[in-house]
Each structure stands twice: as structure tokens, then as C-alpha cells.
Amino acid sequence: MSYLKTPLALALVAVALVGCSKPEPYPISAQLPTEQRDQMGYALGASVGDFVHSNLVGQEDSGYVVDRNAVIAGFVDTLRASGKMDKDTRQQLLEAMQEEFTKHRNDTLGASALADGAAFLAANAQAEGVVTTASGLQYKVIEQGPADAPKPTADDIVEVHYEGRLVNGEVFDSSLERGEPLVIPLNRVISGWTEGVQLMSVGSTYQFVIPAELGYGERMAGSIPPNSTLIFDVQLLQIIEQEADQAEIEIDANN
Fold it and tell me: What is the pLDDT of residue 199?
């Protein structure tokens, strides 16, 4: 939700076009302007309106609602040089709003993800072929590599193909979709990966179900909600002997 910055004022122009339930005392066009310069202005308003609308909907979907009439009033007043709030106060309120929404989102999404994850882990633990380790990691062998194939250690760098999903089946990351395997140092990933991949021999494919505490915990990671249980199908292609990249690597929707 990076829109809660000073440039937000510029992005409020077209919110009046997106479904307010009561009549508004602000200009709403009856039809598209005919002159090109006016159409350019309309296009600018429509583009920023789409941006703000999508972000407001994202907030509302999590139960955090901001009065759209107040949003429109703030924009129109400022556009007409009759704004009722100084820039410092505005920035302080936007920052407070960002913090408040982030906490609300994390609490709401996190509680739901935690409950869904617990139910999935309990059911999956009873599935055929699933092993639960002392840490709570669950794994299942999809394909076992050759008996004499090596296994990596926590200090090794490995090349893998993988797909990551939430317990609802939503894919949030996939090297297979990108068509390129990932090279990662095992001491730079979430602990569920560090533990799980060490169980594999080269050439194996395992499915891991990773509880939140072995994944990203209470923080949001890309599109992954806080407290999410993660499902990974991982194919270990090879162990690579080279210097590890010191940058932290996260397996999430941003990769």
C-alpha cells in the first residue's frame, strides 16, 4: 500500500467516479469530452482514479474503510486552493493511516491464515506418506533420487525447481512458470527450506508443508499473508560449489 505518501493528493481526482452511494456536490461528467485536450485531462483523472480505487477496494476487502466522501472533499478542496489542512499535518495523518491499516491488515489476514494453516496441517499429517519432523515441518517424497546421490548441508548452495502455494491452492511463486531454476544458499532461506532440502538427495522431488513459524511468521511477504502455512513442491537438481551470495533470498511472490 505504498500510495499513502505525499503524492496521494494527486491521485484522488477520479474517486468520485467509482461508486459513491450518495449524490455528490462535485462535478461528474455526463459523457466523454469531445475536445482532445479535455480528453487528455479526463484520461489523467481516470488513470489516477483507477489507482486510488483499487487501493481503497483493497483496504475495504480487509474491513478497513475510509469515507470516500472525505477523500473526494480533500482532493477537490485542495484543487480549488481551499484546502483545510497544512502539508505537515496531512503527512502525519497519512503515516498514521499507513501504520493503522498495516496493523489491521496483518491482524485480520494473519488470524485467518493461522486458522486455515492449523486445519490444513492437522489434516495433512494424517495423509499417506506424510512425515512430520520434530520442528513441525511436514514432507512427502514425490520422487526419490538415486540411492548414491549426495544430500546438501545447511552451508551448501543448491539449484532447484519449485512451486509455492498457499493452503487454498493459490500459487504465489514458481520457478517452473519462469522456466528457470533457482540457485540458493540454504542458510539464506526460510528455516522450513533449510531443514527440508537437507532431507533430499539430488534428483529427488519432495512436497513440503511449512508451518508459519518455519516460514515468514507474522510478517507479510509479497502476496503471502502473515501467519501463512506454505506448500512447496521442490525438485533438487544439483549441489553447487561456489561462494554464496550474501544477499538474503526470499521465496515469495516478488521473485
Answer: 97
Q: Which CATH number fits the domain that encloses residue 199?
A: 3.10.50.40
Residue 33 is assigned to a structural domain of this protein: yes
Tell me the C-alpha distance between 184 and 245, whole Å: 8
Distance CA 105, CA 134 (A): 31
Give domain status of residue 11, yes or no: yes
Over residues 11-38, the pLDDT tens digits come to 444 443 344 444 455 566 778 888 899 8
Given a contact cutoff of 8 angstroms between Cβ atoms, the answer to whether 232 and 162 are in contact is yes
Residues 60, 158 within the same domain: no
Average pLDDT over residues 137-141: 98
Instruction: Look at residues 84, 99, 116 and tell me which one is the last residue of a structural domain.
Output: 84
Residue 47 lies in a domain: yes
| Phi, psi torsion values for 128, nearest 5 degrees | -65, 135
CB-based contact 203:211 (threshold 8 Å): no
For the whole model, what pTM was predicted? 0.65
Residues 223 and 135 in one domain: yes
226 or 18, which is more confident? 226
At residue 255, does pLDDT exceed 60? no
- Mean pLDDT (whole number) for 63-76: 83
Whole-angstrom distance, CA of residue 210 vs CA of residue 190? 9
Domain containing 178 equals: 129-240
Question: What cell does 42 get?
Answer: 479526463
| Active-site residue set | 162, 172-173, 190, 216, 232
> What's the confidence (pLDDT) of residue 17?
37
Residues 6+ apart with CB under 8 A from 68: 15, 18, 20, 56
Residue with cell 516460514: 215
Cell of 76: 477537490
